[in-house]
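Summary of Year 1 activities. Much of the first year was spent building the evaluation harness for sequence design. The harness presents a backbone, in tokenized form, and records the residue chosen at every position. We chose the following record to illustrate the format because it has been used consistently in internal testing since the harness was completed.
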């Protein structure tokens, strides 16, 4: 069974908390991870790139020179794609890049991402903090040997989440997610994942209840 290191209010990391296998175990499905992360990155694209075709470029209504007798190649418009300032051929147009991903696949990808971090010992749980300051957050990371990009998972219903959010937000490399909106991509790009105790409980209970409803 996977486990997470517990960081208590004193900043020490002595204990461990067992993580449910149905959420943090079961192996890593690289194929599902790739599909879901690719779809998430595609959905994040703005899709606003736009070019003009020869019919949309202003000007070019007059034939540049007569058809015959000049010795030059025949042309009907200076807005042809062959001309500088002409229209684009097969250029981008505004479009929606998003791809529909089934809920079960998203959940499987998130489970694989969390399992990957848990296997590497990169999952921590903050427990016993009533409030937090940036100085305390910095010492917690240093004491636990956590560096790089840190994903802090919060519970919206927890009153201390706002204090923890403010404390970590001042630290470089910190990212945040609510337990209800955690995604595989957010977990994968993080070097360490830190759950608050309430966020871990909320994520566990909500995910297990969703699985029971589907059954």
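For this record, the design step produced the sequence shown next.
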């Amino acid at each position: 069974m996977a486990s997470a290191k517990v960081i208590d209010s004193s900043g020490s990391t002595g204990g461990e908390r067992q993580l449910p296998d149905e959420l943090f175990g079961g192996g890593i499905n690289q194929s599902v991870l790739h599909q879901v992360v690719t779809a998430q990155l595609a959905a994040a694209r703005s899709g606003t790139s736009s070019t003009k075709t020869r019919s949309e470029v202003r000007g070019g209504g007059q034939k540049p020179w007569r058809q015959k007798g000049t010795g030059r190649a025949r042309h009907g418009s200076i807005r042809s794609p062959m001309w500088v300032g002409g229209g684009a051929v097969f250029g981008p147009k505004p479009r929606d890049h998003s791809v529909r991903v089934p809920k079960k696949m998203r959940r499987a990808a998130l489970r694989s991402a969390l399992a990957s971090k848990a296997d590497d010992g990169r999952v921590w749980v903050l427990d016993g903090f009533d409030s937090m300051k940036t100085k305390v957050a910095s010492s917690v990371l240093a004491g636990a040997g956590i560096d790089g990009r840190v994903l802090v998972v919060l519970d919206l219903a927890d009153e201390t989440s706002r204090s923890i959010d403010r404390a970590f937000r001042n630290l470089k490399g910190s990212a945040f997610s609510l337990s209800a909106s955690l995604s595989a991509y957010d977990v994968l790009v993080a070097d360490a994942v830190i759950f608050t105790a309430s966020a871990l409980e909320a994520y566990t209970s909500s995910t297990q209840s969703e699985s029971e409803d589907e059954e």
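The first strand starts at residue 3 and ends at 7. Quantitative recovery figures across the full test set are reported in Table 2.
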